[in-house]
């Protein structure tokens, strides 16, 4: 079955690669319209998924991520219309010129071909990914979580109707609809058909993909993010940034998980932090030094367990570690970070420069919240994932990251000397 | 042992990342000088490798690739000096601006970190790769073929002397010196330390890396390249290009392996091809249609075996296949090509455009030899490999492909709304 899906996707990708931006936008508009027009079928499938999920005892948080409503579906359709408005990178000439040999050479941006995406229980991802792939002329093979497979099947059915109404093959957007987990392992070996694989999920899925996939994989989306409060920083603004980075949306990958505090700042800063975190409802996981300054205050403080330094809380919890200096802060981030987003809060120019140069993360910030690491915030218009590896794309992945380039050489019966 | 190599490389990479272009060029110059000054030690190690290789019955061609001489060593040192002259991409700002949120954001080009390279019996690759990695501030872990391990050890020893003379850690350039093959498998799992892996070798090595590596891999360097002779093409210039693409250096990956001839051109073109190929000493592997036009001529013609369509000859052999039209040619290339380099020879504008758009290869040519696919020819100054995959880098990989970028966000106590 997967072989057929792969062949259909590859065939469709050749057709998509030749489409103009206008033709691609036409499909996207049709897709948005049909998502609204077919809302009842999609919502019905979603209700069946929800009923099953309740029966399986999924948490309320999971049920909420899985649930669609007419309003949510409308918002999803509007996001597709938003993608229409983005600039299409395909066809752009990156660079080029006339070589001494007489060959006119240029690098031209082209679609990747077929993109594979493995994700969990969020039906909006199905539409997001499909629209970004279509906009860049890629075919896509989607593998959503088993909790949403009825919803995804209904959505993909609607997308395929839109494709066919525009004279394009249904193979351009396909879902692996069986909940059978063995199919994921099979998908990871489809290097003949899939050009890039994006797993969007937890550490286990990423490990599986890294170890088993024969397709180039982009991993990311796991953020053990740090904020380092330097000696020179003002307390008020520091607290303001920390509250934003921790509480604005605690379940996201760009939320801060560990605060590193300069030893010389600890006495002045930590009591104020305790006060503020008590107000913000954040539990502090403090190392023994930090506990000294925090234990008498109003904050909920627990003793730091080493393991929490290496995992995302995704909740209103924050590690607090006192470090001797900038070197210790950088060493800590190298050891425990996931190369996602890390920030320094400082008034010292040279400390800022050193931190930016030496912290090896996708995004490094000075006096700003880690919450900015996001395709929308970065002005990319949308994001297909957040990469924490270094090849191909790093950080929020916009439309450009769904393309590659080809070298086009035009000669006049030109040979190599 | 590999764990120690990995840790030393990672530590060195942090130091290299902060070097100025001038400091990096100073190491490269020192390296070039010492390669010449220490020639006798390197040549002695090379003689020991050669003696062992003769004893093991290696072919003359292999012995030649393995052998160093004072002149070859001088040329290798001069190549290092050439790398000094290239523009350092590290530190360049790719794009950036002031976001609505007040965050000043830029994408800054930075080294990858640690690059791993697995290659075969060519000691010049050791120096090439080390110099390109140092130029871009990367540490490198080299794993050469077992036939050259003494030579590589001597070369790496000299490079490490140069590093230390400039106050830099020897961990910046390391070789896995034991010929034990099990170490390759171990190297493929070092994702904690190695950021990018480049296998330079045959299809078997690439398959091993794709299947076993947990590190992002760049595969390439295998070229089943095609030339399609369109109906409208002039015979003389076509033969000229084909001779260049086949015979200029038959052992390279950008050499043409299969000629696709438009059916309507066969009668006029194939007899002339036979004549020319007889003169050039090329054996033709002809399909049954082509045989009709070739068998009465002077060329050495054998019946095409299907398997030869999917493999590199790397010799003076050429498949000849008659195709019904452009569609058949493109389908053939999609089925049998390795997405390396493919060319059309035509006088028809629209045929040229269609071929360029629809052939999904790293390099596509119109009226030019496939032999141009090369970092030097493309003006990149040097190449670390030729990628035939689509992620990160495609085609000849110059200095830029040894870098990634980081997002740098400078705020003024800026939070996400």
TrEMBL record, chains A, B:
A Pfam family (short name) is: Aldedh
The main enzyme category here is oxidoreductase
Q: Name one GO biological process term.
A: L-proline biosynthetic process
Q: Where in the cell is it found?
A: Cytoplasm
The pathway that the record names for this protein is:
Amino-acid biosynthesis; L-proline biosynthesis; L-glutamate 5-semialdehyde from L-glutamate: step 2/2
User: Ranges for the Aldehyde dehydrogenase domain?
Assistant: 7-282
Any one GO CC term of the record = cytoplasm
Q: Which domain of life is it from?
A: Bacteria
The UniProt catalytic activity note for this protein reads: L-glutamate 5-semialdehyde + phosphate + NADP(+) = L-glutamyl 5-phosphate + NADPH + H(+)
Query: GO MF terms on file?
Result: glutamate-5-semialdehyde dehydrogenase activity; NADP binding
Q: Could you tell me the EC number(s) of this protein?
A: 1.2.1.41
UniProt entry keywords in alphabetical sequence: Amino-acid biosynthesis, Cytoplasm, NADP, Oxidoreductase, Proline biosynthesis
The job of this chain, per UniProt, is described as:
Catalyzes the NADPH-dependent reduction of L-glutamate 5-phosphate into L-glutamate 5-semialdehyde and phosphate. The product spontaneously undergoes cyclization to form 1-pyrroline-5-carboxylate.
The family note in this entry says: Belongs to the gamma-glutamyl phosphate reductase family.
Q: What is this protein called?
A: Gamma-glutamyl phosphate reductase
Organismal lineage = Bacteria, Pseudomonadati, Pseudomonadota, Gammaproteobacteria, Enterobacterales
């Amino acid at each position: 079955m997967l072989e057929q899906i792969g062949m259909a996707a590859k065939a469709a990708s050749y057709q998509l690669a030749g489409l103009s931006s206008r033709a691609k936008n036409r499909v996207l508009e049709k897709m948005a319209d049909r998502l609204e027009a077919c809302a009842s079928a999609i919502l019905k499938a979603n209700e069946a998924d929800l009923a099953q999920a309740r029966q399986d005892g999924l948490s309320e948080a999971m049920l909420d991520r899985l649930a669609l409503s007419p309003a949510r579906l409308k918002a999803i359709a509007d996001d597709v219309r938003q993608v229409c408005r983005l600039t299409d990178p395909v066809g752009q000439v990156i660079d080029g010129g006339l070589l001494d040999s007489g060959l006119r050479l240029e690098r031209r941006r082209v679609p990747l071909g077929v993109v594979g995406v493995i994700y969990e229980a969020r039906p909006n991802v199905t539409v997001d990914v499909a629209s970004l792939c279509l906009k860049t002329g890629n075919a896509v093979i989607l593998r959503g979580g088993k909790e949403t497979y009825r919803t995804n099947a209904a959505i993909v059915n609607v997308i395929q109707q839109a494709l066919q109404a525009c004279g394009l093959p249904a193979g351009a957007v396909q879902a692996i609809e069986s909940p059978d987990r063995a199919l994921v392992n099979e998908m990871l070996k489809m290097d003949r058909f899939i050009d890039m694989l994006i797993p969007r999920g937890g550490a286990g899925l990423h490990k599986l993909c890294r170890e088993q996939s024969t397709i180039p994989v982009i991993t990311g989306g796991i953020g053990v993010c740090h904020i380092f409060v330097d000696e020179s920083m003002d307390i008020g603004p520091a607290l303001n940034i920390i509250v934003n980075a921790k509480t604005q949306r605690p379940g996201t990958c760009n939320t801060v998980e560990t605060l590193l505090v300069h030893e010389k700042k600890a006495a002045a800063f930590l009591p104020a932090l305790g006060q503020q975190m008590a107000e913000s409802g954040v539990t502090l996981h403090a190392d023994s030094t930090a506990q000294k300054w925090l234990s008498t205050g109003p904050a909920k403080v627990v003793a730091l367990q080493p393991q929490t330094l290496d995992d995302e809380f995704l909740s209103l919890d924050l590690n607090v570690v006192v470090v001797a200096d900038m070197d210790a802060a950088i060493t800590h981030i190298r050891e425990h970070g996931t190369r996602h987003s890390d920030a320094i809060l400082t008034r010292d120019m040279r400390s800022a420069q050193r931190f930016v140069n030496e912290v090896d993360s996708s995004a490094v910030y000075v006096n700003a919240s880690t919450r900015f690491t996001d395709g929308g915030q970065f002005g990319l218009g949308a994001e297909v994932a957040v990469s924490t590896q270094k090849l191909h794309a790093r950080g929020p992945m916009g439309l450009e990251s769904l393309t590659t380039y080809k070298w086009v050489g035009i000669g006049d019966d030109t040979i190599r000397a």
